[in-house]
Specification:
The structure is a homodimer.
Chain A: E1 2-10, H1 13-16, E2 25-30, H2 50-64, E3 65-75, E4 79-80, E5 83-84, H3 87-97, E6 101-110, E7 126-133, E8 147-148, H4 151-160, H5 167-172, H6 177-180, E9 188-189, E10 194-197, H7 213-222, E11 228-231, H8 238-245, E12 249-254, H9 257-266, E13 270-273, H10 279-283
Parallel strand pairs in A: 1-12, 2-3, 2-11, 6-10, 11-12
Antiparallel strand pairs in A: 1-13, 3-7, 4-5, 6-7, 8-9
The structure holds a DNA duplex (19 and 19 nucleotides).
Chain lengths: ~290, ~290
DNA sequence: GTTCCGCATGAATCGATAG
DNA sequence: ACTATCGATTCATGCGGAA
């Protein structure tokens, strides 16, 4: 049995990050509060001040990330006065001056975009997943996110997407073990930089801003078991919970006590997981929501 | 019969645009040569000089566009030295200083992206479609690009129930006068800012940078019959040909003689089209390739 | 056990109203 | 004039109860 740790920290990440060691994190995956949102925690950062607010944090993130590590930043600019605001693209430019390499930009296509109708724009159905690195060579495990292809896979996936399927069962792999044999010899393809996922609107405990599949995909892609994952804007703890379930150590920082308590209640400080064995097979269980359409 | 004109111009658009009148174009749709590509035509613009090269052109485009018009710029930054280059986002910032409003950014999800494999990145399956405007109020015909909803796709699990169909049908039958509008409103949904299109359509020529559906969608959205469409980087003439087929006047500028001749051979200077009659119904015919999946 | 249907719920955006 | 709040608009998703 392998033991992984989940360290939850209550506080402002701009300060709390300073307690973390240099070059200690393999993957940073986070979704910071968007401009004008979460006014009760970070004071509702104004769009014009967003870059200035974020830079000290990204500076610390740069310090704690391993040279081989990756920083995935989930963000989207809002509309201000009829225009897309420029704080996101300005942030990219500013972070590059800090030393970050803007390696890639993934697109999260939100299949269930927020409804609404306006005279001069359509619904916003995508968000950015900016990939930053410290070095041009970084760790990446592409095989871990390969997707099945072909007619057989389509039929298989369609069945998996039935509303009556047992999702959590396949997640852990307990009920999935027997079916895994079916994937042997099946054709798989590397994914693209466009991810198709729906947001979770179901009102479980607290609504997370992104579905489990999102951090899971990047954790698969950029880390192995035993690695360290950091989410400086933990929220209700989606990233940390998923990382722990996948056998990765995790650190989550959250400024709001109620969110911190929420995460604490869900995530045990230590988790014991069976040693990885069928690594490739188990890791390549079908991701219906990430599958290219 | 309505007559629409296609004006093809051989030359550098930076110069040729000066011959066009102020505030005369309803829609500019173009895909400029990407950095380092088409080295023999525009001298192979270096990524670091891309903004500087494009700004005089965008300045002229600003001049010729009607205040109610729209400029759609299809562009994607290339990878340089392991990083996404910043010339596109720098261009956005620079164009705003020229007076352009960065209204929206559409995503073109290329369903059949080029195959390939790299050690540290996946296939690039999307491009930006940057929308710029001169004013916050611009012409937009959202109904022209509505997509069917309900059971349009096999992938969709939730099908419109039989009772729902009957209910809708009866509702349609009970109405009078605006019957058609009601029916359309019930069966169709407004699209999002993510477009799903394949890169090539089978029955089209292979030299085009984008499929017909791409300019067609934006021409539908931002223009009406008889309007003027401009493509300052015409290439083989996809935009002009599509515009003409849709009953819009078009201007195409191309610097390379072989491309110019190619477009000239395909596109007649004048086209006669039947006058629009069943406007609503004809405009809302389903576009399979644009459908969300 | 299925399949089907009703319903609540979102990192949204605009325009009008109020301070 | 400029900012804060609020109602109206709209649709994919999954849960729970019903057939």
């Amino acid at each position: 049995m392998t033991t992984v740790e989940a360290r939850l920290i209550l506080g402002d990440c701009a300060k709390e990050l300073k307690h973390l060691a240099d070059d200690s994190i393999d993957l940073i995956f986070t979704s910071p509060p968007y401009a004008d949102s979460r006014a009760n925690s970070y004071g509702g950062i104004k769009p014009d001040q967003y870059v200035e607010w974020f830079l000290p944090i990204s500076q610390e993130l740069y310090r704690v990330l391993k040279p081989s590590g990756t920083f995935i930043l989930n963000i989207k600019e809002k509309v201000v006065n009829g225009e897309r605001h420029t704080y996101v693209i300005e942030l990219i430019l500013a972070m590059r001056k800090q030393g970050w390499l803007w390696t890639e930009e993934f697109i999260w296509h939100k299949k269930n975009a927020y409804p609404g109708k306006w005279p001069n724009r359509f619904r916003d159905a995508w968000e950015r997943l900016l990939q930053f690195n410290k070095a041009r060579k970084f760790r990446m495990f592409q095989e871990a996110v390969m997707v099945p292809m072909g007619d057989w896979a389509e039929r298989r996936l369609r069945r998996l997407s039935q509303t009556d399927r047992i999702r959590d069962n396949s997640r852990v792999g307990s009920g999935f073990g027997k079916r895994v044999a079916n994937w042997i010899g099946r054709q798989k393809a590397y994914p693209t930089n466009v991810l198709h996922l729906a947001t979770e609107t179901k009102n479980r405990n607290h609504s997370a801003v992104f579905p489990d599949d999102l951090p899971e995909w990047f954790i698969r892609l950029f880390t192995q078991e035993g690695d360290w994952v950091l989410d400086p804007f933990m929220g209700s703890g989606t990233t940390v919970r998923v990382a722990q379930r996948m056998g990765r150590n995790a650190i989550g920082i959250e400024i709001l006590p109620e969110y911190y308590q929420l995460a604490k209640a869900i995530i045990p400080p230590l988790a014991h997981l069976p040693a990885r064995q069928l690594s490739l097979l188990e890791e390549t269980e079908p991701y219906e929501s990430v599958e290219p359409e």
